[in-house]
Automatic annotation (TrEMBL):
Belongs to the IF-3 family. Residues 129-254 are annotated as: Disordered. NCBIfam families: infC (TIGR00168). This is Translation initiation factor IF-3. Signal peptide: none annotated. It comes from Bifidobacterium aquikefiri. Residues 48-132 form the Translation initiation factor 3 C-terminal domain.
Length: 254
């Protein structure tokens, strides 16, 4: 039956009586199992433990500031480890640190509960608070919250920049391109090709015209030099004939 359907016979519950099998595509089944395992790892719960340190003789303002940090961590779904550091003689009377931690736990009781009661470990008194009625955020939810906060920060920065520009009267710079250059850039391809052909023909005609002009100049120079040579030869022949005539005249006179 599996061969006729081009499927695989897979035993999915070998310990059952009788064992359970399925007709499935085994390759597709393995691929889906990998996808499910990857999603499970991505969405698994990951709790971060934040740590806040107190001093035994902390003043009221600092106590309120640190209590605000604890409340923020608990609201975000994180556990908080609260530590009181004891110095010198403070180690001999840790009851003051225990009372301080109990006061903190009572004031944030609407956000968290005491997971580990205050106890002394060496020179420190430690208490752990867990978020109350809050599901620990998964990694995907934390990434989503992080991306949202980044987008909000970018929007606030852009708004502040626009406000500063308006107050200073500076207009935002626009990347404007002259209309002629824009038309040349966006001209159709065939028009650009015809323009190149026209320019090529014009350059060829200019080169031919310059060649003809140079040829005419060289021809006129050659004819001028030939005429000058002919004139010189005629003048030389006339001088020779004049000398011969003068010689004959002087001989006859003798």
């Amino acid at each position: 039956m599996a061969r006729e359907a081009s499927l695989d016979l897979v035993e999915v519950a070998p310990n059952a009586k009788p064992p359970v099998t399925k007709l499935i595509d085994y390759g597709k089944f393995k691929y889906n199992e990998k996808i499910k395992a990857r999603e499970a790892r991505r969405n698994q719960s990951t709790a971060e433990i934040k740590e806040i340190r107190f001093r035994l003789k902390i003043d009221e303002h600092d106590f309120e500031v640190k209590k605000g940090h604890v409340s923020r961590f608990l609201s975000g779904g994180d556990k908080v480890k609260v530590t009181i550091m004891l110095r010198g003689r403070e180690q001999s009377r840790p009851i003051g640190g225990v009372d301080l931690l109990r006061r903190l736990a009572q004031e944030v009781s609407d956000l968290g509960t005491v997971e580990f009661a205050p106890k002394q470990e060496g020179r420190n008194i430690i208490m752990t608070l867990a978020p109350k009625g809050k599901k620990v955020h998964t990694q995907s939810e934390q990434r989503r919250r992080g991306s949202q906060s980044r987008a909000e920060r970018q929007a606030r920065q852009a708004a502040r920049l626009a406000t500063k520009q308006e107050e200073s009267g500076v207009q935002p710079v626009k990347n404007e391109v002259p209309q002629e250059i824009h038309e040349q850039r966006h001209a159709p391809a065939h028009e650009s090709h015809e323009t190149h052909q026209h320019e090529h023909r014009a350059s060829q005609s200019n080169s031919h015209a310059s060649h003809d002009a140079s040829a005419r100049r060289s021809g006129s120079g050659h004819s001028t030099s030939t005429a000058m040579r002919s004139s010189a030869a005629a003048s030389s022949a006339a001088q020779n004939m004049h000398r011969i005539a003068s010689a004959k005249t002087s001989k006859n006179n003798k």
